Protein backbone atom coordinates (compact mmCIF):
# COMPACT_ATOMS: atom_id res chain seq x y z
CA UNK A 1 0.00 0.00 0.00
CA UNK A 2 1.54 3.27 -0.99
CA UNK A 3 0.18 6.68 -1.71
CA UNK A 4 0.96 8.24 -5.04
CA UNK A 5 0.95 12.00 -5.21
CA UNK A 6 1.12 13.50 -8.65
CA UNK A 7 2.77 16.92 -8.68
CA UNK A 8 3.21 16.43 -12.43
CA UNK A 9 0.75 14.20 -14.21
CA UNK A 10 1.24 13.10 -17.79
CA UNK A 11 -1.75 11.71 -19.62
CA UNK A 12 -0.39 9.51 -22.37
CA UNK A 13 -2.96 8.99 -25.07
CA UNK A 14 -2.68 6.33 -27.76
CA UNK A 15 -4.75 7.19 -30.79
CA UNK A 16 -6.05 4.06 -32.47
CA UNK A 17 -5.77 5.52 -35.96
CA UNK A 18 -2.05 5.98 -35.44
CA UNK A 19 -0.88 3.05 -33.39
CA UNK A 20 2.66 4.35 -33.18
CA UNK A 21 1.81 7.92 -32.23
CA UNK A 22 1.68 9.15 -28.63
CA UNK A 23 0.74 12.57 -27.37
CA UNK A 24 1.57 14.15 -24.05
CA UNK A 25 -0.83 16.61 -22.49
CA UNK A 26 0.22 18.65 -19.50
CA UNK A 27 -1.87 20.62 -17.09
CA UNK A 28 -2.42 24.06 -18.58
CA UNK A 29 -2.32 23.01 -22.25
CA UNK A 30 -4.91 24.95 -24.33
CA UNK A 31 -8.16 23.01 -24.50
CA UNK A 32 -8.46 23.79 -28.22
CA UNK A 33 -5.21 21.92 -28.85
CA UNK A 34 -6.39 18.95 -26.80
CA UNK A 35 -9.73 18.77 -28.62
CA UNK A 36 -8.01 19.02 -31.99
CA UNK A 37 -5.87 16.00 -31.23
CA UNK A 38 -8.69 13.97 -29.72
CA UNK A 39 -10.43 13.23 -32.99
CA UNK A 40 -10.51 9.47 -32.68
CA UNK A 41 -11.34 7.04 -29.88
CA UNK A 42 -8.57 6.98 -27.31
CA UNK A 43 -7.39 4.78 -24.50
CA UNK A 44 -6.09 6.89 -21.59
CA UNK A 45 -3.26 5.49 -19.51
CA UNK A 46 -2.17 7.40 -16.42
CA UNK A 47 1.43 7.00 -15.31
CA UNK A 48 2.84 8.10 -11.99
CA UNK A 49 6.07 9.90 -12.87
CA UNK A 50 7.67 9.61 -9.42
CA UNK A 51 8.40 6.76 -7.07
CA UNK A 52 7.17 7.11 -3.50
CA UNK A 53 8.26 5.22 -0.43
CA UNK A 54 5.72 3.11 1.38
CA UNK A 55 5.84 1.46 4.74
CA UNK A 56 7.78 -1.78 5.03
CA UNK A 57 7.24 -4.97 6.99
CA UNK A 58 10.22 -6.77 8.49
CA UNK A 59 10.70 -10.16 10.17
CA UNK A 60 7.03 -11.12 9.80
CA UNK A 61 5.61 -14.24 8.15
CA UNK A 62 3.16 -14.02 5.27
CA UNK A 63 0.06 -14.24 7.47
CA UNK A 64 1.17 -11.50 9.85
CA UNK A 65 2.35 -9.33 6.97
CA UNK A 66 -1.09 -9.53 5.37
CA UNK A 67 -2.72 -8.59 8.68
CA UNK A 68 -0.37 -5.62 9.07
CA UNK A 69 -1.17 -4.33 5.59
CA UNK A 70 -4.88 -4.54 6.41
CA UNK A 71 -4.33 -2.81 9.75
CA UNK A 72 -2.46 0.05 8.10
CA UNK A 73 -5.33 0.44 5.65
CA UNK A 74 -7.77 0.48 8.56
CA UNK A 75 -5.67 3.05 10.39
CA UNK A 76 -5.74 5.35 7.38
CA UNK A 77 -9.54 5.13 7.44
CA UNK A 78 -9.64 5.71 11.20
CA UNK A 79 -7.55 8.87 10.84
CA UNK A 80 -10.02 10.33 8.37
CA UNK A 81 -12.97 9.15 10.48
CA UNK A 82 -11.70 10.74 13.70
CA UNK A 83 -10.71 13.95 11.92
CA UNK A 84 -14.17 14.24 10.33
CA UNK A 85 -15.73 13.83 13.78
CA UNK A 86 -13.48 16.62 15.09
CA UNK A 87 -14.77 19.02 12.43
CA UNK A 88 -18.31 18.78 13.86
CA UNK A 89 -17.11 20.30 17.11
CA UNK A 90 -15.92 23.45 15.36
CA UNK A 91 -19.52 24.60 14.89
CA UNK A 92 -20.62 23.92 18.48
CA UNK A 93 -21.15 27.38 20.08
CA UNK A 94 -19.57 26.43 23.44
CA UNK A 95 -16.47 25.14 21.66
CA UNK A 96 -16.28 27.75 18.93
CA UNK A 97 -16.28 30.58 21.48
CA UNK A 98 -13.55 29.00 23.64
CA UNK A 99 -9.99 29.66 22.35
CA UNK A 100 -8.58 26.80 24.48
CA UNK A 101 -11.02 24.27 23.01
CA UNK A 102 -10.36 25.44 19.46
CA UNK A 103 -6.62 25.28 20.04
CA UNK A 104 -7.00 21.69 21.28
CA UNK A 105 -9.02 20.71 18.21
CA UNK A 106 -6.41 22.21 15.90
CA UNK A 107 -3.59 20.43 17.69
CA UNK A 108 -5.37 17.07 17.55
CA UNK A 109 -6.14 17.52 13.84
CA UNK A 110 -2.49 18.41 13.19
CA UNK A 111 -1.41 15.25 15.02
CA UNK A 112 -3.75 13.12 12.92
CA UNK A 113 -2.37 14.60 9.70
CA UNK A 114 1.14 13.99 10.97
CA UNK A 115 0.23 10.36 11.69
CA UNK A 116 -1.01 9.90 8.14
CA UNK A 117 2.25 11.27 6.76
CA UNK A 118 4.49 9.24 9.08
CA UNK A 119 2.67 5.99 8.26
CA UNK A 120 3.76 6.19 4.64
CA UNK A 121 7.42 5.95 5.64
CA UNK A 122 7.24 3.61 8.61
CA UNK A 123 8.64 0.14 9.12
CA UNK A 124 6.77 -2.50 11.08
CA UNK A 125 8.91 -5.21 12.66
CA UNK A 126 7.67 -8.42 14.25
CA UNK A 127 9.86 -8.91 17.32
CA UNK A 128 10.44 -12.00 19.47
CA UNK A 129 10.41 -12.44 23.23
CA UNK A 130 14.19 -12.16 23.10
CA UNK A 131 14.05 -8.66 21.63
CA UNK A 132 15.19 -6.05 24.11
CA UNK A 133 11.97 -4.07 23.83
CA UNK A 134 9.82 -7.15 24.41
CA UNK A 135 11.59 -8.53 27.49
CA UNK A 136 8.76 -7.03 29.51
CA UNK A 137 6.10 -9.70 28.95
CA UNK A 138 3.33 -7.15 29.43
CA UNK A 139 4.50 -5.03 26.52
CA UNK A 140 2.39 -5.29 23.38
CA UNK A 141 4.20 -2.88 21.04
CA UNK A 142 6.69 -0.01 21.06
CA UNK A 143 8.20 2.49 18.67
CA UNK A 144 11.68 3.72 17.79
CA UNK A 145 11.40 7.44 17.18
CA UNK A 146 15.02 8.59 17.30
CA UNK A 147 16.27 11.26 14.86
CA UNK A 148 19.09 9.08 13.53
CA UNK A 149 16.60 6.55 12.15
CA UNK A 150 15.55 7.40 8.62
CA UNK A 151 12.41 5.35 9.08
CA UNK A 152 10.01 5.36 11.98
CA UNK A 153 10.07 1.84 13.38
CA UNK A 154 6.97 0.28 14.94
CA UNK A 155 7.77 -2.95 16.77
CA UNK A 156 5.16 -5.60 17.56
CA UNK A 157 5.83 -7.99 20.44
CA UNK A 158 4.49 -11.58 20.53
CA UNK A 159 1.76 -10.54 22.95
CA UNK A 160 0.32 -8.30 20.24
CA UNK A 161 -0.64 -11.40 18.27
CA UNK A 162 -1.74 -13.55 21.20
CA UNK A 163 -3.97 -11.28 23.24
CA UNK A 164 -5.28 -8.60 20.92
CA UNK A 165 -8.32 -9.18 18.71
CA UNK A 166 -8.58 -7.54 15.30
CA UNK A 167 -10.29 -4.41 16.61
CA UNK A 168 -7.86 -3.99 19.49
CA UNK A 169 -4.88 -4.47 17.19
CA UNK A 170 -5.94 -1.48 15.11
CA UNK A 171 -6.32 0.65 18.23
CA UNK A 172 -2.90 -0.37 19.56
CA UNK A 173 -1.30 0.50 16.23
CA UNK A 174 -3.13 3.85 16.24
CA UNK A 175 -1.70 4.53 19.71
CA UNK A 176 1.85 3.66 18.67
CA UNK A 177 1.77 5.65 15.44
CA UNK A 178 0.70 8.73 17.41
CA UNK A 179 4.06 8.53 19.21
CA UNK A 180 5.71 9.38 15.88
CA UNK A 181 3.98 12.75 16.18
CA UNK A 182 4.94 13.68 19.72
CA UNK A 183 2.35 12.02 21.95
CA UNK A 184 3.34 10.68 25.36
CA UNK A 185 2.04 7.88 27.60
CA UNK A 186 0.53 10.14 30.26
CA UNK A 187 -2.40 7.82 31.05
CA UNK A 188 -3.89 4.58 29.76
CA UNK A 189 -7.59 3.98 29.18
CA UNK A 190 -7.79 0.21 29.04
CA UNK A 191 -11.50 0.04 29.84
CA UNK A 192 -13.96 1.30 27.28
CA UNK A 193 -15.70 3.44 29.91
CA UNK A 194 -12.45 5.24 30.75
CA UNK A 195 -12.68 8.32 28.55
CA UNK A 196 -9.75 10.70 27.92
CA UNK A 197 -9.01 13.34 30.54
CA UNK A 198 -8.04 16.92 29.91
CA UNK A 199 -5.58 17.17 32.79
CA UNK A 200 -3.41 14.88 34.88
CA UNK A 201 -2.32 15.42 38.46
CA UNK A 202 1.48 15.43 38.52
CA UNK A 203 3.90 15.53 41.43
CA UNK A 204 6.03 18.66 41.34
CA UNK A 205 9.69 17.76 40.90
CA UNK A 206 10.92 21.27 41.62
CA UNK A 207 13.82 21.21 44.08
CA UNK A 208 12.73 22.93 47.29
CA UNK A 209 15.96 22.78 49.30
CA UNK A 210 19.66 23.16 48.68
CA UNK A 211 22.09 20.26 49.35
CA UNK A 212 22.66 21.59 52.87
CA UNK A 213 18.92 21.49 53.59
CA UNK A 214 18.40 25.24 53.38
CA UNK A 215 15.02 26.13 51.79
CA UNK A 216 15.25 27.65 48.33
CA UNK A 217 11.83 29.31 48.50
CA UNK A 218 10.17 31.13 51.38
CA UNK A 219 6.92 29.49 52.49
CA UNK A 220 4.70 32.03 50.74
CA UNK A 221 6.47 31.37 47.39
CA UNK A 222 6.92 27.62 47.72
CA UNK A 223 5.60 25.75 44.63
CA UNK A 224 2.68 23.39 45.21
CA UNK A 225 3.50 19.73 45.79
CA UNK A 226 1.25 18.74 42.86
CA UNK A 227 -0.02 20.49 39.76
CA UNK A 228 -2.34 19.67 36.86
CA UNK A 229 -0.65 19.01 33.52
CA UNK A 230 -2.67 19.59 30.35
CA UNK A 231 -2.76 16.30 28.40
CA UNK A 232 -5.81 16.96 26.20
CA UNK A 233 -3.84 16.75 22.94
CA UNK A 234 -0.70 14.81 23.83
CA UNK A 235 -1.81 11.57 25.48
CA UNK A 236 -1.22 8.63 23.13
CA UNK A 237 -3.98 6.46 24.56
CA UNK A 238 -6.52 9.21 23.91
CA UNK A 239 -5.91 8.58 20.21
CA UNK A 240 -6.42 4.87 20.73
CA UNK A 241 -9.68 5.61 22.55
CA UNK A 242 -10.88 7.85 19.72
CA UNK A 243 -10.03 5.17 17.17
CA UNK A 244 -12.02 2.58 19.13
CA UNK A 245 -14.94 4.66 20.38
CA UNK A 246 -15.16 7.84 18.35
CA UNK A 247 -14.01 11.35 19.18
CA UNK A 248 -14.82 13.29 22.33
CA UNK A 249 -13.20 16.53 23.44
CA UNK A 250 -11.34 16.21 26.77
CA UNK A 251 -12.63 18.73 29.27
CA UNK A 252 -15.83 19.24 27.29
CA UNK A 253 -17.80 16.04 26.76
CA UNK A 254 -15.51 13.04 27.37
CA UNK A 255 -16.58 12.85 31.01
CA UNK A 256 -20.21 12.41 29.93
CA UNK A 257 -19.49 9.04 28.33
UniProtKB/TrEMBL annotation:
InterPro entries the UniProt entry points to: MetalloPept_cat_dom_sf
EC number per UniProt: 3.4.24.-
Signal peptide: 1-19
Residue ranges that the Swiss-Prot or TrEMBL entry lists as coiled coil: none
Keyword Signal: yes
Keywords per UniProt: Hydrolase, Signal
GO molecular function, one term: metallopeptidase activity
Main enzyme class: hydrolase
Statement: the UniProt record of this protein carries the keyword Cytoplasm: no
Protein name: M35 family metallo-endopeptidase
Amino acid sequence: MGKCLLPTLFLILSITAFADEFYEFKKGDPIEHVLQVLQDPIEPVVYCTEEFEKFKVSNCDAEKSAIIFNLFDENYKLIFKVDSQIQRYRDVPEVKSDPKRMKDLNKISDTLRCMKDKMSNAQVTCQTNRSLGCLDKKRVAYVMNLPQFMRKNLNLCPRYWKEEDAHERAGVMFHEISHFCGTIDHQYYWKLNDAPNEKKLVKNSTRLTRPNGEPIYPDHLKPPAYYHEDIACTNADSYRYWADNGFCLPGYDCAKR
